[in-house]
């Protein structure tokens, strides 16, 4: 089994790394792949809550690294989706609790055992991010269409490129068509021109994301909302399917694609 190890990163905080990691982990597992989601945001753990697994944590990533437990003991197995596991972050430790070498060793110990390892990383370009990325072959850079997010993503992409990641793809999150159309938000093509990295997903701004985060039920677990479809399509593209990107200027206020809706006379949110 060829394990794909993908770090989800951004530079700027709060742009959607944890949301992307949770939704893609669920979706890939629902497609039948075995998945380990690693929360490498040590000290600020969040992925457990977004995945709805916070009550089942016994051990965490630092326990594994310090050999207080074995790796399988720390993996929280999801009961809703088969083959989905979470390796939680430690809450009471700092980012320095895990080094790049330890992360690399941990990731390598998962090779051959799972199809996908998705790593949620902390914001910033310091050691926390570098450690999170150390064991990954591929990177998903999450960016929102605003200048500071794009600028931080540019720094991150530079670092990832110098670390020779096999592939770096962009997920443009929280896209608001109305604002793009009125020139108040950067367009997705502006973002891709500036960053010169392949776009693998365009996720609309969607209130359902916030609700799902609060419930601990990622949208890909069953919602048909626009963002859920968009995440499904990102997962499809990760799996190599040819799924065209949506027109980012044609999501309506609910995140649905208005052009298509008109064309077919029904809801057709696709992202
Ligand atoms: N497409 C979206 N539509 C609406 N809200 C969103 C969307 N994506 C993310 N959010 C919301 O934005 C907030 C931040 O998301 P998230 O925690 O995933 O970001 P993060 O990059 O992991 O943040 P941090 O850097 O703090 O770890 C959350 O409240 C989440 O629900
Ligand atoms: Mg996060």
CATH class: Alpha Beta
How large is the radius of gyration? 18 Å
Corresponding CATH superfamily? P-loop containing nucleotide triphosphate hydrolases
What kind of assembly state do the chains in view correspond to? single chain
Q: Based on DSSP secondary structure assignment, what is the total number of beta strands?
A: 8
Overall geometry = globular
Strand order of the largest sheet: 3-4-2-5-1-6-7-8
Mean pLDDT: 91
Can you tell me the CATH topology?
Rossmann fold
Helix content: 25-40%
**End-to-end distance:** 30 Å
Q: What CATH architecture label applies?
A: 3-Layer(aba) Sandwich
- Number of structural domains: 1
What proportion strand?
A: 15-25%
Short description:
The chain has 271 residues and is an alpha/beta fold.
Explain this structure.
- This protein has 271 residues and is of the alpha/beta class.
- It is built from twelve helices and eight strands.
- Helices cover 39% and strands 16% of the residues.
- It has a single domain, classed as Rossmann fold (3-Layer(aba) Sandwich), CATH 3.40.50.
- The protein has an eight-stranded mixed beta sheet with strand order 3-4-2-5-1-6-7-8, with helices on both faces.
- Helix 1 crosses helix 11 and helix 5 packs parallel to helix 6.
- The site of adenosine-5'-triphosphate has 20 residues, from helix 1, strand 7 and helix 10.
Key attributes of the depicted protein:
271 residues, alpha/beta, Rossmann fold, 8-stranded mixed β-sheet, globular, disordered C terminus, binds adenosine-5'-triphosphate, binds magnesium ion
């Amino acid at each position: 089994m060829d394990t794909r190890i993908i770090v989800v990163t951004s530079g700027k905080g709060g742009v959607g790394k944890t949301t992307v990691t949770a939704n893609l982990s669920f979706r890939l597992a629902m497609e039948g792949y075995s998945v380990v989601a690693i929360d490498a945001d040590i000290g600020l753990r969040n992925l457990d809550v977004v995945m709805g697994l916070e009550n089942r944590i016994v051990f965490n990533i630092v326990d594994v690294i310090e050999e207080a437990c074995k790796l399988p003991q720390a993996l929280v197995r999801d009961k809703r989706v088969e083959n989905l596991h979470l390796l939680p972050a430690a809450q009471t430790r700092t980012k320095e609790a895990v080094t790049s070498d330890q992360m690399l060793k941990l990731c390598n110990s998962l090779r051959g055992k799972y199809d996908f390892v998705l790593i949620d990383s902390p914001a910033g370009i310091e050691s926390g991010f570098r450690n999170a990325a150390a064991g990954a072959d591929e990177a998903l850079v999450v960016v929102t269409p605003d200048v500071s997010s794009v600028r931080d993503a540019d720094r991150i992409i530079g670092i990832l490129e110098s670390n020779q990641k096999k592939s770096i793809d962009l997920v443009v999150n929280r896209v608001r068509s109305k604002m793009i159309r009125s020139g108040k938000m950067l367009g997705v093509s502006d973002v891709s021109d500036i960053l010169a990295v392949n776009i693998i997903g365009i996720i609309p701004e969607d209130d359902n994301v916030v609700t799902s985060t609060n419930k601990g039920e990622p949208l890909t677990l069953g919602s048909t909302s626009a963002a859920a479809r968009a995440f499904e399509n990102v997962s499809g593209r990760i799996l190599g399917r040819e799924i065209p990107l949506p027109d980012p200027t044609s999501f309506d206020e609910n995140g649905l694609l208005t052009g298509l809706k008109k064309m077919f006379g029904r809801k057709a949110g696709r992202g």
